[in-house]
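Attaching the record inline, Q. Sequence:
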Amino acid sequence: MSAMKVLTFIILNGFATALPASGMTTITEREPLTNIAQVNLYSTSTCGGTVQSFSVTSGASVCVAVDGDKASIDVIENDCATYVWSGTNCEGNSLHISGDTCTSVLYGSVSVQC
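Structure, as predicted:
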């Protein structure tokens, strides 16, 4: 065989072996990423002192009344919505907490939806 025919055969043979067999799927299904929020509630305005903590995972929505006076919050979150509320039942005035930073604010409850 000529060099051109051999090269063409090698390329086509390699291409054919790279294709999946008929009826097979090549798409790999990925599991969805889990959304998680780790919430830390503090008694001082600088994320120190007495701490109250809880976590929320994908599909959950919670309202947590704080224990005692809380003056700051930090949240490590992954696509969760976190709000502090003036009332103890997630009602009243609210503030969205963006996460990954200490926020100084007085509040009576915290809502998290992941």
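The two ends are 65 Å apart (CA to CA). The helical segments are 3-18.

More tomorrow.
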